[in-house]
Amino acid sequence: MGTINNALTMYILLKSRKKMSRGEIAKILEISPRQVTRYKEDLQTAGIQIIETTGRYGGYELVGNDYFLEAGFTRKDKAQFEQLLSWLQSEQYVHYQDVELLANKIFGNQLESPTFIGAKTHTHAVSSQTEKDKWDQLSEAKILHQKVEVTYQNVHQEKTTRVIHPYLLVTYQQANYLVGYCETRKEIRHFKLMRMEQVIILEDTFEIDAEFKQKTYLKHAFGIFKDEKIEVKLKIMYPYAQSFKEREWVADEVIDDFPEDKYLLYTAEMEGLTQIKAWIMQMGTSCTVLAPESLREEIIQLHKDCLQNYK
User: Judging by beta carbons within 10 Å of its beta carbon (0-12, 13-18, 19+), is residue 104 exposed, middle or buried?
Assistant: First the structure.
């Protein structure tokens, strides 16, 4: 093995094992301890910081940013990767572990493991296929434009077998969904992967509906569910209004802020009535629906129904 190969192998060993003695490195590389010292000096000349501790548990170890395999990544870059990993974990993304492994390969296992805060989704799957297996199958079919046959169990535990054209895979509120054209219903629908009992990729291919645009499909959707588009106008009271205006809920929303009067007005075009109503109910007394009148009446009725639970 040549000098460069030996030095690189020594670097990789220290990267993975954290600390090794000269004797351990020499044995693996089949060289003398003196040569190990020389490779250490060569690596230090290349900008890789290596320290040596003496004693029974001493040895060589890497310290600081070595820049050798990190391509000049900064602390900010690492922090952004850690933030991304934290979000993927909180969403229970099916390929989270693969992404984490890739990120740690890039940064040499120097990323901090994210801390998960929140409730995990119960995966009472209706199939022996894992969520990851189904995601991978559907992703393959989506890329190759192949139809899939899915045995699906709805919320009423009724099973149907459908042929679907997979358009889009989405993770929303810690659940995974397939967006695709359903040949049974003759329309684009959403299917929760957890409720899929079986997924079979068919040989038949499909063409994506020309009107379907992946980048804009969910532009006005509150969540991932789409239906009739409505213009929603809300009155949001402070102090909740402060946190409300700190995030974007949908595209092209408008906020008129009146902090002196302790409220703001929120206007946006939205789709996904069921999710919209749940969102408004979560805001409780901090939110008043101003328009449309039909939504206002539904929210009033929901509050009345809630009161019935306490009688």
Answer: middle
Both tokens assigned to 104: 């740690």
Range 206-211 contact pairs with CB under 8 angstroms and sequence separation of 24 or more? 206/145, 206/146, 206/147, 206/165, 206/181, 207/145, 208/145, 208/165, 208/167, 209/167, 209/181
Residue that is written with structure tokens 């044995």 in the block: 27
DSSP-derived secondary structure letter, 124: -
> Do the Cβ atoms of 146 and 201 come closer than 8 Å?
yes
Instruction: Spell 204-225 as b/e; 16+ CB within 10 A means b.
Output: eebebeeeeeeeebbebbbbbb
Three-state secondary structure call for residue 215? coil
Please tell us whether the domain made up of 3-62 is placed in CATH 1.10.1740.10. no
Q: How many CA atoms lie within 13 A of 134 on its CB side?
A: 27
Which CATH architecture describes the domain 131-205? Roll (2.30)
Q: What is the mean pLDDT of residues 63-71?
A: 55
| Mean pLDDT lowest among 191-200, 219-228, 263-272 | 219-228
* Model pTM score: 0.54
Top mean pLDDT of 32-36, 75-79, 199-203 is at 199-203
Q: Give CA–CA dist 115/112, Å, rounded.
A: 9
For 123-127, 175-179, 293-297, which range has the lowest pLDDT when averaged over its residues? 123-127
Helical H segments across 130-172, by residue range:
131-144
